[in-house]
Amino acid sequence: MKKFVALVGTNTSKSTNRKLLKYMKRRYADEADIEVVELKGLPIFKKSTEAFVPQQARDIADKIDASDGVIIGTPEYDHSIPALLSSALAWLSYGIHPLMDKPVMIVGTSYGTLGASRAQAQLRQILDSPELKATVLPSSEFLLGHSLQAFDDNGDLKSATEAQKLDGLFDDFLEFVDLTSQLDNSKKLHEQEAATAFTWDNGLTGDEQ
């Protein structure tokens, strides 16, 4: 059975993104062991002379390292991902690289109609950066709009159509994980680049400074 880490991309206590990830954990329990992991409590990213990484970020990195893939649930604030998620990804690329070549599935909920579509597009771009270099499931968006009304009292999706759509994407992700496990020709190169050329301090990546 595959093991996935599901990152809750918000610190909101009543997040519908958290609810969606917990729903996926229950729904796909026979196909994968999904651990829902909170980012809440992580400090805002800040460079330091000693390249300090908080223990919480290191613990999350260890979980990702030990997993077969990652699922990220993101809301959308002002057409972008939350500061907490952005900061977490910065910690996970600061001298550590657990997401490198790791299969990632993105899902998102929002109270409005668009279902975090712009945030998901931005998140894909961030995950493709040289410091992260995750392998994101292509052509797959699960956009759950009007999410406050989307779940029943048991935390399950009310819409059979939305549930079937999510089922199809999750099945694709399972196959994607198997496929990407065979694509390791460039993995060592990515690891070498991460350790040398793409650092936060030598200026070669430019935009982070």
Automatic annotation (TrEMBL):
GO cellular component: cytosol
Top-rank taxon: Bacteria
Sample GO molecular function, one term: FMN binding
Pfam families the record matches: FMN_red
Coiled coil: none
Domain spans labelled NADPH-dependent FMN reductase-like: 3-147
Listed Gene3D superfamilies: 3.40.50.360
UniProt protein name: NADPH-dependent FMN reductase
Organism: Secundilactobacillus folii
